[in-house]
Design a protein that fits this description.
- The complex is a heterodimer of chains A (360) and B (716).
- Chain A has 360 residues and is α/β, with parallel strands linked by helices.
- In chain A, 48% of the residues lie in helices and 12% in strands.
- Chain A has helices at residues 10-13, 15-23, 37-45, 63-74, 89-101, 116-119, 125-131, 142-149, 163-175, 211-214, 228-238, 246-250, 252-270, 289-305, 313-324, 328-343, 350-359; strands spanning 47-48, 54-55, 78-83, 107-109, 121-123, 138-140, 152-156, 177-180, 185-188, 194-200, 217-221.
- In chain A, the strands form four sheets. Chain A has a five-stranded parallel beta sheet.
- Chain A is globular, with a radius of gyration of 23 Å.
- Chain B is built from 33 helices and ten strands.
- The chains are: A alpha/beta (360), B alpha/beta (716).
- Chain A binds chain B through residues 37-38, 41, 64, 67-68, 70-72, 74-75, 77, 80, 82, 211, 214-215, 218-221, and chain B through 277, 279, 281-282, 285, 288-289, 292-293, 295-298, 309-310, 312-314, 317-320.
């Protein structure tokens, strides 16, 4: 039986698009870049190439933000993507790295227990003992590799790292040099090296960036989608587990249900109905487009394997309920209030209301 | 020979090239596109005594509010041309059709579109000046710009309106005249659009041009200079030919290649002034980002949008709220122009400037932030300031805003004003100029006209006070006569009372003359009987909420009447109060309040008051009404209660006989009443209540009830 990787890297998944973009790229490229900045923007925002190749949009939203992000990486400043969870920060950083360096795998995941060596380098202790300190015993970390090869390095959840570890980035970003005192040498970054960091607005307080580090980054704040239509498109683009037949995904009914789900998420998140008439309580969960995507994917999978192959209302209801009620004590009354004050009286929503009531 | 230099109005790039091109061309005569009336203003447009931006104002001699403005900034090519002519001492003349020919059409002419801005837009530039720089200046080089432009315009232009035709015919005639006058090198500076119509005069017949000009009708116009501001130059201020960002244009004019750096430094400085960190290194980084952004957007140079995006990402850490705090000042810049004293200007403007100088308000006038001035009206200088500020408010120029004045402070010697001059006030001043040559005349003219046409009695009454404070007493008799004409009969009683409240202090403090007092007294003698009769019915069947509002007015009215000498009027009023206090249909709150008024002025003796009080309290079935009656009676201060222990007694007995349930229902009411009293008064009442009860009923006192009552009282 054929095996398939669950989630291929962006540079593999979109290899043909990238190849086509390279072919038609007439603009100058910064040193170490696979594509010109303008083509990178085209890769992210999508469009059609001269030979008719369709480039799928990877990010749906403000063009300005993507332009600022790409332009930043073309200067020697690093890029910080800031935003609440589910605003496609990680997604964007992966695609930027794939388009610029052709490699999105150089990644440091920020956690509370992260040590400085994860950023710099570690040792192969067997070799270190056998051969003594030397280049061959050195195991380079993602940052070091990125510097040597002139590639984009992604640092995820920068503010989760302890502050001391964060600050190790300062000299790397300003001097573009990583010293190895044990060997008395250093690694100098090659053109093309840069860092894309992501950080979460919500837990900014955990390990806030020192102003010295902050200064090395240009910040792009990733917004929640402004319009309902825009968010529905984002969810539609994000829905697509390969195991689900395209047939279900494309149906009008599915589209309609996605629209309703996104509406509910937006209203709860914003604390008011779309028409601005009714004030609502806000649940604890984030309810961004990312949550909507996973709720829809969840429902579609269930519909495919357990249902009649139709994304019917009970699957929407169960996905919705699961995403909204994160904490039974505080979220349940919020959700019940929404059902009774908003959904019950909304025209054409009777079926969804009934299905949601059943879930409780 | 003549040579046409096509320019972009308010285009800094254009202005720079024009400066260079004129140096090279060495003209012996300069013609520029500006209405002929500007000629008398041009001599004043250089030197140390003036500073751009300024505007030529050409207005209908009969009505200065019908006016056309010709603003010039330091970066306007026309301004550069004037400076050049003055420095070389060569003649310069405004060659466009006089406004007197076109005043009527100017207001209708809507197609003042800049064809170059359209081209820039099509090329994807949101900042048309950058398009100009990249596609005209950089490619052609300063000297060849004008030739390149001429070629472009010849292709762009096919037809123009007859109005343009008339203007261009006039300009051609002017050029012909100068050439006939023997000048060898005539430089013609005009909007690029006109190039094809002016460059080759042989293409147009002089006879036809003359024919075309016969059609015009003339209106007598005058011209003067007024200071202008960057704020008014902005497109968003409603000025059709305005620019998006005057400050950015100034930097482009002054620094050209380095304008982006200067812009970013300004941004950083402003952020620092708001206590936000923005280092020099970041300024450099931000400029580089803007250049990188321009590359991605396929623009030759970063424009305003790129600079803003870069400042946001680098200096403001992505926070648009931070950027918004400086955005407006950064885009506009708060430059205000200056005109020489001897230049022709609107008489009213000159008058204002003289007064500002005399009153030593120049620093306040020029301060960018608002300033608070406390005026002591016993000093002559301060009194004059107050008069000026009041006058300005009356001609709708709220340069000074009077800070809230308490009712009792009326007629006192001090006034607090917050002053901030806004550039938009110049326009209003010009409009006010149609009413007179000085501020005083304008106020008289403007208010006189307003009074004659106003039919709203209350509005008329509200002007009395400001007119007196503006020292325009002459109008007060007219105003009072007008009020008499309009008549108070159509007003409802509340409005009538408000007018009386307005009028009485005027009579008391205003230094009105004897004749005016007669009119005032006539008005009062007309109003007060009407009120005294109408109020009795008026207070019936009204909601409790409105009764509270109305009672406040009744109280103010009552206190006001205390200053009147006319015994008959006061008697009428007190009769009205008495009737309300007895009338079973009167709103209970007002009934209670009026009863209190009667008790306080001694209209009733103690016995009567006590009898009445216990009578009211004994009616038990109308609980809510009683509550409102009490609220009215206890309104404001409990002094009356404190000095009448017997009333406290009656109140106490009343409370004690309430059932527990009734008591709980009444509790919020008492809380509402008592919470408005001062702490000392509350303690006094509390002490009285506790002592009395303990003394009177020592035997049958229920301990549990006592603690409960005390606890509740403590709550109050």
């Amino acid at each position: 039986m054929e095996t398939k990787i669950i989630r291929p890297h962006a540079e593999h998944l979109y290899a043909s698009e990238l190849a086509a973009l390279i072919r038609f790229d007439g603009d100058p490229r910064p040193l170490g870049w696979k594509l010109s900045p303008r083509s990178v923007v085209a890769y992210i925002l999508g469009g059609q190439l001269e030979d008719g190749t369709q480039v799928t949009p990877k990010y749906i939203g403000k063009r300005r933000l993507i332009e600022i992000a790409v332009a930043t990486l073309a200067t020697d400043r690093a890029l910080l993507l800031l935003g609440v969870p589910g605003t496609a920060k990680t997604w964007l950083s992966e695609h930027l790295a794939a388009a610029i360096s052709g490699d999105s795998t150089l990644i440091v995941q920020g956690t509370a227990g992260l040590g400085e060596e994860a950023l710099r380098y570690t040792w192969n202790y067997a070799r270190l003992i056998a051969e003594g300190p030397g280049e061959s015993a050195l195991v380079s970390g993602p940052v070091m590799t990125g510097m040597k090869q002139g590639k984009i390095v992604r640092v995820e959840e920068l503010t989760r790292m302890p502050s001391e570890v964060q600050d190790a980035l300062i000299s790397i970003l300003s001097e573009k040099v990583l010293p190895i005192p044990e060997l008395g040498t250093e690694v100098s970054a090659v053109q093309g090296f840069n860092i894309i960091a992501t950080a979460n607005d919500r837990d900014r307080g955990i390990n806030d960036l020192s102003s010295a580090l902050r200064r090395r980054f240009n910040t792009v704040i990733m917004p929640l989608p402004e319009k309902l239509e825009e968010e529905v498109n984002i969810v539609l683009a994000g829905v697509g587990t390969p195991s689900i037949p395209l047939k279900i995904r494309g149906e009008m009914e599915t589209l309609n249900e996605i629209k309703r789900l996104v509406t509910v998420f937006r209203e709860l998140r914003n604390g008011k109905t779309e028409d601005g008439r009714i004030q609502l309580k806000i649940p604890t969960g984030t309810l961004s487009a990312a949550e909507a995507i996973s709720a829809v994917n969840n429902g579609l999978t269930m519909a495919n394997f357990f249902g009649k192959g139709k994304f019917s209302v009970e699957y929407v209801a169960s996905g919705m309920t699961g995403a909204i009620i994160q904490d039974r004590v505080s979220d349940l009354p919020v959700w019940q209030e929404y059902l009774e004050t908003v959904m019950r009286d909304r025209e054409g929503w009777g079926d969804l209301y009934a299905a949601c009531k059943k879930e409780l | 020979m003549h040579r046409v230099f096509g320019i972009r109005h308010h285009g800094p790039g254009s202005a720079r090239s024009l400066g260079k091109a004129l140096l090279q061309f060495e003209p012996d005569y300069l013609l520029m596109e500006a209405p002929q009336e500007m000629d008398i203003l041009i001599p004043f447009l250089s030197g140390k005594k003036m500073a751009p931006p300024i505007a030529g104002l050409i207005y209908d001699a009969q009505d200065s509010s019908r006016a056309v403005y010709f603003p010039l900034a330091g970066f306007s090519p026309e301004y550069v041309a004037i400076q050049f002519a003055h420095s070389r001492s060569i003649p310069i003349k405004a060659m466009d059709l006089p406004v007197s020919y076109q005043l009527d059409t100017v207001f209708e002419d809507k197609n003042a579109e800049d064809p170059l801005a359209r081209l820039a837009d099509l090329a994807g530039y949101s900042d048309s000046e950058r398009w100009w720089e990249v596609h005209i200046e950089q490619i052609a080089g300063s000297e060849a710009v004008f030739d390149a432009l001429a070629v472009m315009m010849r292709q762009l232009r096919n037809e123009t309106s007859s109005f343009n035709g008339m203007r261009e015919a006039w300009m051609r005639q002017e050029i012909r005249k100068v050439i006939d006058g023997g000048y060898q090198r005539v430089a013609v500076v005009c909007g690029a659009w006109h190039i094809p119509a002016l460059e080759d005069l042989a293409l147009f017949k002089e006879k036809e041009d003359k024919q075309l000009l016969k059609k015009g009708t003339k209106i007598k116009c005058e011209a003067c200079l007024v200071p202008w501001s960057y704020d008014q130059l902005r497109f968003s201020s409603g000025y059709g030919a305005g620019v998006i960002s005057p400050m950015w244009y100034e930097l482009l004019f002054l620094y050209r290649e380095k304008a982006t750096v200067h812009w970013m430094i300004r941004a950083a400085k402003m952020l620092r002034r708001k206590d936000l960190m923005a280092s020099t290194a970041e300024v450099g980084d931000a400029v580089r980002l803007s250049e990188s952004l321009a590359g991605i957007r396929n623009l030759g140079l970063p424009g305003l949008d790129e600079l803003k995006d870069a400042a946001l990402a680098v200096l403001c850490k992505g926070q648009s709220v931070v950027f918004d705090r400086v955005a407006n000042e950064l885009e506009t810049g708060n430059r205000i122009g200056k005109i020489p004293e001897e230049a022709p200007t609107l008489p009213i403007y000159r008058d204002l400037m003289l007064q500002i100088k005399r009153l030593r308000l120049t620093a306040v006038f020029n301060a960018p932030e608002s300033t608070v001035r406390q005026l002591d009206l016993r000093k002559e200088l301060h009194r004059d300031m107050s008069i000026l500020l009041h006058r300005m408010v009356l001609i709708e120029i709220p340069w000074g805003k009077k800070l809230k004045e308490k009712f009792y402070a009326r007629g006192s010697f001090s006034e607090d004003w917050s002053l901030k001059w806004r550039s938009g006030y110049y326009l209003k001043l010009i409009q006010a100029g149609r009413w007179g040559r000085t501020i005083e005349e304008a106020v008289s003219g403007y208010m006189g006209q307003k009074i004659r046409s106003e039919e709203n009695f209350v509005l008329l009454a509200s002007w009395i006070d400001p007119l007196i404070k503006s020292g325009i007493q002459d109008l007060v008799p007219h105003l009072l006569n007008r009020m008499q004409e309009v008549g108070a009969s159509i007003l409802d009683v509340e409005a009538q009372m408000r007018v009386v409240i307005e009028l009485i202090p005027v009579r008391r403090y205003g230094d009105v003359r004897k004749t005016d007092i007669d009119v005032l007294d006539w008005l009062l003698a007309d109003l007060i009987p009407r009120i005294s009769i109408g109020l009795i019915q008026y207070v019936q069947g009204i909601e409790a909420e409105y009764a509270r509002i109305l009672y406040r007015i009744i109280l103010a009215h009552h206190h006001g009447l205390g200053f009147l000498e006319d015994k008959r009027l006061i008697e009428l009023w007190m009769g009205c109060i008495q009737k309300i206090s007895m009338g079973s249909l009167s709103a209970p709150l007002i009934r209670g309040g009026c009863f209190r008024i009667l008790a306080e002025v001694g209209h009733l003796n103690d016995m009567e008051v006590r009898a009445r009080f216990s009578f009211e309290l004994s009616v038990r079935e109308t609980g809510e009404q009683l509550a409102l009656w009490l609220e009215g009676f206890l309104w404001g201060s409990p002094q009356y209660l404190i000095y009448n222990p017997t009333l406290v007694d009656i109140l106490d007995q009343y409370i004690q006989q309430l059932s527990e349930r009734e008591f709980e229902q009444k509790l919020p009411l008492f809380r509402r009443i008592f919470s408005s009293y001062s702490g000392i008064d509350k303690r006094k009442l509390f002490k009285m209540a506790v002592e009395e009860t303990v003394f009177e009923e020592p035997v049958e006192w229920d301990e549990e009830l006592k603690s409960r009552v005390l606890a509740n009282l403590a709550l109050l």
